[in-house]
Amino acid sequence: MELDRTLKPSISSEITYKGPSYETFTLDNSLDVYFIKKDSLPIIRTDIVINAGSIFEEPNKRGISNLLAMCIDEGAGKYDSLELSKQFDQLGAQFSIHNNSENIQISLQALKENFAKALKLVTMILNEPHFKQKDFEREKRNILTKLKQLKDDPDYLANTSFKYQLFGELNPYSYPVIGLHEDITRIKNKEVISFYNNHVLSNNSFIIVVGNISKGHLRNNLNKILSPWRENKSDIKFESKKKKDEKVIYIVDKKDSVQTEIRTGHHSTGRNSEDYFSKHLLNTILGGQFTSRVNLNLREKHGYTYGAGSNFNYYKNNAYFAVSTSVGIENTANALNEIFTELEKIKDGITLEELTFAKSSIIRKFPLNFETYGQVASNFIGKVIFNLPEDYFDNYINNINSVTVEEVNKAAIDNIFPDITTTVLVGDKTKIIDQLGKNNFGDVEVIEKI
User: Fold this and answer.
1) How many other β-carbons are positioned within 10 Å of the β-carbon of residue 123?
2) What is the pLDDT of residues 140-180, one digit of tens each?
3) Residue 62, Cβ neighbours under 10 Å: how many?
4) Among 133, 201, 387, 440, which one has the highest count of C-beta atoms within 10 angstroms of its own C-beta?
5) Which domain holds residue 306?
């Protein structure tokens, strides 16, 4: 029997989803715990989230959070770096540390039978890091080497330069998490230790646990094993000053480049805004999926790029909207013109068909976000950081389904502002500037990359 591919498969049923239930409690050392029982496998996943990201760095110390994240597990307690790694391997535990603008995240995944032993190793890292000078110098060299490599990475240059120009010099979100070369060369090991002492505290953190364990057993384990992790008063300062949006183009010169990296956007309302779900659907239609307007225009219609998209990007204390793509340098102005055209057109309204397709795309993928232990933990980290409602995951599909065409159209009017976009172009300035002069894209300035 031959399949008739002209017929679309019918939708079997409407999707419903109930998010994982969770419980909360606080340990004796003031560490808040969020526990999600998941017993499909004999695994326990633990994520410790510490408010020690790059936004808490002092001026002239950009990169100290990243240095801390790289040095803190270079030996702890009775183990040096190699022995510590070997201990995790022998337990079959997956251990990692990474940082971002807002936090340092320590992740551990282990079999239930090895959970307590693996967590004791993590406690050593939290409470008894060695911070040896030789390890600090090695990691510092690694970062400086990485920064030299990134100087020639157009994608990195576009992202970091865009955020710097969008947020401004006085905003801590402006700076790359990896740090600035001139700052890192000045940072001393004792300053990393001071940053650790001031930030890596149990009362400045929270923990997500996903796994096959009872609440009572987990509480006892955590209280016993994590009790050495100190709590203390911390002198954490954070100030976020917002730069005014204005229509301007900044060119980061990359001589002889055959492509242009494009980033354009503006500030936005935050993650907890009332129109969040309308904005989410708006962006899905505009640039959030392969069939979005921006991608179909730049890729399918004009062939300027392999892909283009847009996003509302959320931090705890900041948010912005941006369109990003990479095009052949000869089509820089053409691509910009089409991007701004789409930003204007979306304000004229969407169709019911577009909204229906966007809803289906979002809803049918939503349950897949909770398949693995890591996915569950990641979603709950976002829930805690943004203080989302207790029933947020349970009501997610209903909240998407309830959005109307009129609400998305209002979200476009309220949240898309092509007349005040900040644009960063990374490419050969001699091939870009003449193109821009023929269009009304705003003032043009050639800048040094951050």
Assistant:
1) 18
2) 999 999 999 999 999 999 999 999 999 999 999 999 999 99
3) 24
4) 201
5) 248-447
